[in-house]
Amino acid sequence: MSSEEPWSRLLWIKQKYPDNYTDPDFIRFMEKMKQKREGPPIIDYDFDQIRKDSLKFYNIFLNSSFIYIVFTLIYYYKTDARYLAGSITLITMLVSTHKNKELTSLLNIKSSFIIIFTLLTLSPVLRSLSMTTASDSIWTVSFWINILYILTCATSSLSPSPHKEDIIKHEASIFYDIKDHSNNKPSNLATNLLLANVAMLASRLNTTTDVFCFLLIAIQVNIILPRIINISHVKVASTSSMIVYLFVGITIGYRITLIFLISSVSYIIFMPKLFHYWQVHYRRRDYEILDLWDPRTPVVDVE
Amino acid sequence: MSDYIFWPNELLRKESSFENEELIIIAIKLEETDYVVIAIEQSSILQDTLNLEYPYTILGNRDNQGNWTINIPHFTIVEFEVPKFKMMQFYSIEPISLILPKNNTVDNPILKKIPNIEKLISYERYKARNYKLNKTIDIINTYNSTLNAFHHSYPMIGKSKENNSSGIISLQRWYTSTVIHKLTCYITFYITFCACYIAYFGSHFLRKIVPTLLRLSATAKQIDLRFQQICYFPVQYMKINQTKPQGRTTSEYRRLNDESSTKKIEPSCKFYPDYIRFYNTLWLIVNDTSFGLMLGAVLHDNHDVIVNTLSDVIMTTLYEKMIEVTYSLANNPFGIKLNHELASFLSELFYWIMEFSYNSLIKFASDKEKLSIFLTFVTNISCIFGASFGISLIVDFFSLLSFHIYLFYHISCKLYHWQLNTLISLFYLFCGKKRNVLRKRIDYDYFEIDELLLGTLLFIVLSFLMPTVLSFYASYTLVWMTAVYISVFLNSAIGLINHFPLFAFLLRIKDPKRLPGGILLLPKYHKNGRVILKLHNNPLSVPAMFNPFSHSLGKIKEYYFSTVTFKNMLSGTSIKVQFNELYDILYLSLPEEPIDISQILSKLKERLPR
């Protein structure tokens, strides 16, 4: 077969090759795979990357628990939400003045105004929305939405294989380079799940002011701040860990905090190792073939 | 290709009477027909005129041993019974149409989608191939007049059937010449004239001046239908009477090659369906009136009971029960906790409508005195004009009374539909997707925080309000659908009264040959190694007679009892009583446009005796 164009593994392209044509590349690839399987397992997995990903998961979990901390403070301990909101807004302002130039690209004045006015308009509506619904069902729904949020957030932000240099660069500073959109943007679905969760919880609060402040705090802590600062950074992560453990310790009791602490530490230490071990020893290598030779779905116009 | 020889049964009988004699067969064959045997004669008679002119030919002969020789090489003999034209029997390839054939050639909705279907259908290849057979059937149907024409041109061959005019006919002739007949004719004509003009202008008024009323009211539709029928009567009458069977002259057959004269040999049975339709309509009107008398009698006898019950029923079902339903919806129905603010707002709105309709309608409708007057009116109307008018008055009364239910349904339907659509689009936003208008699909898109925030908050708010709207929508839909089903049931009763193929049905029982639904060729017996076929009349099947009605029923089923209806309910598409669709069946035996009455009447006038 003398043809200028190389054979490509796409069914929807008209090619000059017969239907039962087998690409020599495929046979070469299969032979290579066979040799690889017979030889000793080659460890080409990056342990650092696995560790980083599982830490990120942990950080997202920590971050989302801030919602519940703030909610408990307002709903249960009757803390004045205005002071809380004011302090959080102050922190956000401070952080954003640090990276003022980039912030304008992320949050311009128009959209922040829209956010404020939307919150102001919908707060009274939200407050009276779930009056007839039982609190328990709201807690249950909120719990499941939060789990969904953590899962979608973690899976969408898991970087497939960033270059080593990039990781080092990210490690270096607390603040993200905001122009670099590749890494720090969670998916829309994750953001929406978070907002839904927050709105559901807010509908339980007693006054409109509380609703507004709670929404404002949650949006700042969970959406705006993670875009500006790197929550995976050691300083940030340890600060938030400290706050969370302290709060849990004060409110629920030290025994539960201890169990919580032990389980999270063991998660941080053992989980990456376990995962790495699984990857090296049990992961099916056929995936490598399937990766290359799986049936691809063509993009076809509906019309 | 072999030729067909159509052989009447009566000639077979004649043939058997001539034992041991030489016979010849004379047949008629036009340009585009098969042979139809018209005479079997002793060959001695034909000695003088051996040359028969076109279209008559000598087909063959029989020697004195009884052996036949046919002059054409390949042939098949088909025996047939000569249809008695006076008894209105005839053969037809196509089933006789009980509804007025409309001009559109393509009726099948699936075929309509194919582009250029009209052109395709008119293409020669797709046309029916039985043109020749059709022509032959025409000759068979007019067999007696063909025979008369033959005897007229060759009086020496055979004997013409004697025109025995009995005493009744002479009496009829005498009567037509008297002044009384003339007077009767004139009086009848002018009565028809007046009735037609009133009907024409009435129908014109309804159609042009108040078309909305015609669309909404069953009574108006019924009046219009009756007017249309009256307008159409003279047309039908003219069509029937202009084609009374007349003896054909030979000259007509001689000039058969002329294009113009072939058109004259149109089958007289062409207007026979009009005859059936005309009498069917007349019978139905009479039937309607007798039903009306029955209905009127029943209503009259139980007047007080009906008034009392109806008053109670209207008061409870249309007012008290509705109030009850709305109240329970506002106060946690079945323990479902709805959004209190929205539920109380909606129920306030519905209370308000209810009070309005109570003060303006239901109060008067449930008043026993007024109800009694209305019932007397319905009784009288149905006695005078027929049951269909009585029922349509009831339908209108019912739809007027259930108007507030329609309003409830419509409001909640709009709310639900709007909310559902918004929720769906917001759900796309929630998943980070967006409708691509250009490609008509859902694509991923990246939204800014403010968009997400607004969308999600609205989504949450709307999904919390959804159960409230849904419960209102579901309960009012249930009530409205009940009202719709009652209305549809009454309307189909009117349709049945107006369009029952009564005349055709009785005709089918009395003489199936008068209602042909096609022909049937069956092998009868073998003769000299040949199969002799027999032409049978295949009468119109009973389901085919009810075809328009079952079509209409199918439409009703499609509109109100199908999964599509259920889907429409789920998606919040409004469901209405499709009066126009329901009434289509009534107009099937009428032309689409009203007939220009003055022309018809002037034509009718020409036929008056002078």
Automatic annotation (TrEMBL), chain A:
Chief localization: membrane
Membrane topology: Multi-pass membrane protein
BP GO terms, sorted: GPI anchor biosynthetic process
Top-level taxon: Eukaryota
GO cellular component: glycosylphosphatidylinositol-N-acetylglucosaminyltransferase (GPI-GnT) complex
Location(s) in or outside the cell: Membrane
Pathway(s) annotated for this protein in UniProt: Glycolipid biosynthesis; glycosylphosphatidylinositol-anchor biosynthesis
Residues annotated as transmembrane: 57-77, 107-126, 138-159, 211-230, 242-270
Alphabetical UniProt keywords: GPI-anchor biosynthesis, Membrane, Transmembrane, Transmembrane helix
PANTHER family: PHOSPHATIDYLINOSITOL GLYCAN, CLASS C, PHOSPHATIDYLINOSITOL N-ACETYLGLUCOSAMINYLTRANSFERASE SUBUNIT C
Family the entry assigns: Belongs to the PIGC family.
Protein's name according to its UniProt entry: Similar to Saccharomyces cerevisiae YPL076W GPI2 Protein involved in the synthesis of N-acetylglucosaminyl phosphatidylinositol (GlcNAc-PI)
Source organism (scientific name): Maudiozyma saulgeensis
TrEMBL record, chain B:
UniProt entry tagged with the keyword Transmembrane helix: yes
GO CC aspect terms: endoplasmic reticulum; membrane
Gene Ontology BP annotations: GPI anchor biosynthetic process
UniProt KW keywords: Membrane, Transmembrane, Transmembrane helix
Keyword Kinase (UniProt): no
Origin superkingdom: Eukaryota
InterPro entries: PigQ/GPI1
Transmembrane segments: 187-206, 371-395, 415-431, 452-476, 482-507
The protein's name: Similar to Saccharomyces cerevisiae YGR216C GPI1 Membrane protein involved in the synthesis of N-acetylglucosaminyl phosphatidylinositol (GlcNAc-PI)
Organism this protein belongs to: Maudiozyma saulgeensis
